[in-house]
Amino acid sequence: GDLEVDLKGLFRESKMSNTVLFFDECEVIFKSRNMGSERLLNSLLTEIERHEGIVFMATNRPYEIDEAMHRRINMVLEYAPPDFSMRKRIWDSLLGSERVKPETLLNG
């Protein structure tokens, strides 16, 4: 369909312009075959396998990504949510001289 054509164009454009591809919430398009469109997933798998550039993917639900896609992933980086101390450091670095009230520091 049209989406498969658009995907081929996306990968072709990435190759021609030497850009990095980033798929946020990638579980939406790389979901398990029993959860969605097999034709779209097959097209994506083919394009990613042929792609010579860099592709980043982000997800909060890796268990929803199709196993065939998992096999094509070279590296996985997991980021745990920041704890209280880290949240405080983040806010302090963003706000500079403005101080965050302790009750504002997001209790997880």
TrEMBL record:
Matches recorded under Pfam families: AAA
GO molecular function annotation: ATP binding; ATP hydrolysis activity
SUPFAM superfamilies assigned: P-loop containing nucleoside triphosphate hydrolases (SSF52540)
InterPro entries: ATPase_AAA_core (IPR003959), P-loop_NTPase (IPR027417)
Domain ATPase AAA-type core, chain residue ranges per copy: 4-77
PANTHER family in the record: AAA+ ATPASE DOMAIN-CONTAINING PROTEIN, FAMILY ATPASE, PUTATIVE-RELATED
Annotated protein name in UniProt: ATPase AAA-type core domain-containing protein
Source lineage: Eukaryota, Sar, Stramenopiles, Ochrophyta, Chrysophyceae
